[in-house]
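[worker-b] picked up task from shared queue
[worker-b] task type: protein-ligand structure
[worker-b] ligand name resolved to zinc ion; SMILES cross-checked against name lookup, match
[worker-b] sequence length check passed
[worker-b] input payload:
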Amino acid sequence: MADWIKFLGTAGARFVVSRQLRSSAGTWCRLQGLNILIDPGPGTLTRCFASRPKLDPAELDAVILTHRHLDHSTDVNVIIEAMTQGTFHQRGALFAPADAVMQDEPVVFRHTRASVERLELLEAGKEYDLGPLSFATPLRHRHPVETYGLRFNLPGGCVSFIIDTAYFPGLADPYHGSDVLVINTVFYDAPPARHIQHLDMEGARALITAIKPRLAVLTHFGLTMLHHKPYLAVQDLAEETGIRVIAARDGMTLDLDQVLGID
Ligand SMILES: [Zn+2]
Ligand SMILES: [Zn+2]
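[worker-b] inference finished, payload out:
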């Protein structure tokens, strides 16, 4: 298993996070020999070391922060300290939106920011070279703070993460051609108010139908998704769309070689 994704946590939104009904740790990707951590929410450092086999943040090559919300960023400083051996050894890359690092209340502190070898601000339509692979942030999502989804281009296929966003026409287009599609699905039914910009099952269904990935993975569950039991909800979705859909579980490892059909 050369390339894989481990969902250290699958909690989305504040009630599931506050009560730790699911873990709010981030997503660790092992891609083309690189270790990349996406959105280190609360508990990420602990979950890395509790993993079997252990995941050591000192071996990270990059941290990607998709947006500054706490469920995505709480552990970012302590993870960067670990990646840079206490900030004493400048190494690794940090990718983050401008409002996460430069606002009057940045979530990434100045001293940790200074310890990475490469700091890149995420922008809509930009592609980032990571040596054996690249990733893009094709568009800005509709979410209360500056937020981007991710599209990884790997030799064997394309893996995309549709991070927190309201559904809107045109959201699917830049993710076309994704073989694996990870969708942050916070709500089962429509969000209770328009200003709550998150995807629900209807939005996930629309994205899966339009993009037609080989595999869709739902994660980042809020309370209503947990009440409907994600593993049951995805069964309906798979039947309706004719596409393989699974619900992420805390600690679940996705073998990308297997999904992409690589030996
Ligand atoms: Zn979130
Ligand atoms: Zn958010």
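[worker-b] attaching auto-annotations
[worker-b] The first helix runs from residue 14 to 18.
[worker-b] releasing lock
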